[in-house]
Write a structure and sequence with these properties.
Pfam family, one: p450
Order of helices and strands: HHHEEHEHHHEHHHHHHHHEEEEHHEEEE
Family: Belongs to the cytochrome P450 family.
Structural class: alpha+beta
CATH superfamily: Cytochrome P450
Number of domains: 1
Organism: Streptantibioticus rubrisoli
CATH class: Mainly Alpha
InterPro entries: Cyt_P450, Cyt_P450_B, Cyt_P450_sf, P450-rel_GT_act
Protein name: P450-derived glycosyltransferase activator
Helix content: 40-55%
CATH topology: Cytochrome p450
Strand content: 5-15%
Largest sheet: 5 strands, mixed
Shape: globular
Strand order of the largest sheet: 1-2-8-5-3
Length: 404
């Protein structure tokens, strides 16, 4: 994509955007989701559910809404990020090879095995003190009124990762400047971005890979590569890029969505403040009720018959995670935020999110604890502004809060 001229890149994205917009005019819920113009996509998820737990959109994509079927698809090795020969589905917008989002299941299994002692659920506890330090310093520098996303949640994730990757002090401002562009990668795969953000994403990916490749023997890169093997250096680079591309936006969304859910219910907020043991349940319920990743795009590597439908090799199958996580056949009163619910766990966003999820959870837990302990009067102080053209991340751009 970096070799395309602005005219070629812009023209290609305009064509895809026009197709999605046209199909959405006739009421297809998946096309309406890809338009990503509504602040609340959940009515579109319900419309998609009415089409069946697996249906084919006029865009050509197969769309899965049911929780049990979604779990089956996500675990099925016949569905992966790319076709057997490395290709993408016809509906795929940008092939962002520099992002490592196209790695197959085998590669992700290797990355998780290689990083189990660094980024596994128990291993990330080693970063708790670091996260507390970064988060505490951010709060020290904020006044009574600030933006929960732009001033706290995102800088927290950026700051922690900069420390883990040992980004030189002189480069940290530029690293932070590129991170918002990197956070659009998941959305850009399925929803055409405007030309300037798309070009910024391509530039940010090139810069990040260049910076990391230039110093492979520092920070987490060195620790991952220390496991040895022929692919050690490439795997270390992949882990670092995925932490930036998927881990930072996921952490920011998880912090904001969890905090906003608590602030909307003062009684619940006070309950969690007095019982820190509930924080883990709050995060679990946030991952179900309003997850950082709303859909997962997969490709059939061969002809697959599932749920009575034949999915031809090379076809795109999109799992609507946010719809599946509110499946009324699984979750009682699914639209209600309830950390005490006992139903099945939420479905997450696929292989690369399994890699970055433990660190995102840890940072969200620390962030919520800091906000609850240090800002007892914290409340939302204005409307939430979400980034447009973000059907995967539903990313929060701004949300003003006040601690006065």
């Amino acid at each position: 994509m970096s070799n395309l001229t602005d005219s070629e890149l812009g023209g290609m994205m305009q064509l895809v955007r026009g197709t999605q917009w046209y199909v959405g005019m006739f009421g297809d819920p998946y096309a309406l989701l890809l338009r990503a113009q509504a602040d609340d996509p959940y009515p579109h998820y319900e419309l998609a559910r009415e089409q069946g737990r697996l249906y084919q959109s006029p865009l050509g994509s197969w769309v899965c809404t049911g929780h049990a079927l979604a779990a089956q698809v996500l675990a099925d090795p016949r569905f992966d990020a790319r076709t057997a020969d490395g290709g993408t589905a016809a509906q795929h917008v940008l092939a962002l090879d520099d992002s490592f989002l196209g790695l197959d299941r085998t590669a992700h299994d290797r990355l998780r095995e290689r990083t189990a002692t660094l980024l596994g659920p128990q291993a990330v506890e080693r970063y708790r003190t670091l996260t507390e330090r970064v988060g505490g310093a951010l709060l020290d520098g904020l006044g009574a009124e600030f933006d929960l996303a732009a001033d706290f949640a995102t800088p927290l994730a950026v700051g922690v990762l900069a420390e883990l990757l040992a980004v030189p002090t002189k480069d940290r401002a530029r690293f932070a400047e590129h991170c918002p562009a990197l956070g659009t990668a998941l959305d850009a795969e399925v929803c055409p971005q405007q030309l300037a953000p798309a070009r910024a994403l391509i530039t940010a990916l090139r810069w990040l890979r260049g910076e990391l490749a230039a110093r492979p023997d520092t920070g987490l890169l060195d620790e991952v590569a220390a496991a040895g093997g022929d692919e050690a250096a490439d795997d270390a680079l992949a882990v670092a890029v995925l932490l930036a591309v998927t881990g930072i936006p996921a952490t920011s969304s998880l912090v904001c969505n969890a905090a906003l859910a608590l602030l909307a219910d003062p009684a619940r907020c006070e309950e969690v403040r007095s019982d820190p043991g509930l924080l883990s349940k709050v995060i679990d319920e946030t991952l179900r009720h309003d997850p950082p990743v709303h859909l997962r795009s997969l490709v059939a590597r061969e002809d697959v018959r599932i749920d009575g439908q034949l999915i031809a090799a090379g076809s795109q199958l999109v799992v609507l995670l946010a719809a599946a996580n509110r499946d009324p056949e699984v979750f009682c009163d699914p639209g209600r935020f309830d950390p005490h619910r006992a139903e099945s766990a939420a479905l997450l966003g696929g292989a690369h999110h399994e890699l970055t999820a433990p660190l995102a959870r840890l940072q969200a837990e620390v962030a919520l604890r800091l906000l609850l302990d240090r800002l007892p009067r914290l409340r939302q102080d204005g409307p939430i502004v979400r980034r447009r053209r973000a059907p995967v991340s539903r990313a929060i751009a701004r949300v003003p809060v006040t601690a006065a």
